[in-house]
Write a structure and sequence with these properties.
Blueprint lengths: L11 H29 L5 H11 L12 H57 L5 H23 L6 H15 L2
Length: 176
């Protein structure tokens, strides 16, 4: 739990670290298989080689003479599933990243509009003859509140890179 009582949020930074770790494990397994395969491949039968080709994506439908028909059909289905599944995962990932970015920008706009609305309500509640005196004080309070929000609360939910991108967007789009 964070100091605000929120449960831990899985940030894109931890997702990136997980992806890098998974990639390193995959690379190590691939290297080990390549080193091991040199001594094993001559002893493998055609069915094992066929299934390795199906799973690794190096599959050729012309090489079906030494496997049973049911194995060939299952191989076609498995190869299509693996290939289309990978494409679907990539598309889903790209769409999810775009959705997350859009949500962050919408959230930034919502905070900007909320602050503007609160400021407007305060200004409308003040007597007109005191506006020139009190308006700078209100602006200073909102500025200090925004600085506190940036330093204390944004780091609970976003990485430093995301915070900078969010603040840059808010400043460029709305003179925040």
């Amino acid at each position: 739990m964070s100091r605000c009582g929120h449960s831990a949020v899985r940030t894109p930074m931890t997702v990136r670290k997980s992806a890098v770790a998974l990639g390193l494990v995959f690379a190590a397994v691939t290297i080990a298989l390549c080193l091991y395969a040199g001594s094993v491949v001559p002893a493998m039968n055609d069915a094992v080689i066929y299934w390795l080709q199906v799973v690794t994506g190096n599959w050729s439908p012309d090489k079906k003479e030494n496997v049973a028909d049911w194995q060939f059909i299952l191989g076609v289905v498995l190869a299509l599933t693996l290939n289309l599944g990978t494409i679907a995962a990539i598309i889903t990932g790209v769409v999810e990243l775009a959705r997350q970015r859009s949500t962050k920008m919408n959230l930034a706009n919502a905070f900007i509009m909320k602050d503007a609305s609160v400021k407007q309500q305060i200004v409308e509640a003040l007597p007109p003859d005191q506006l020139d005196v009190i308006r700078p004080i209100i602006e200073d309070w909102f500025k200090k509140g925004a600085e506190r929000w940036e330093k204390e609360y944004l780091p609970l939910f976003f990485s430093e890179e995301e915070i900078q991108r969010l603040l840059r967007f808010m400043r460029e789009e709305h003179s925040f």
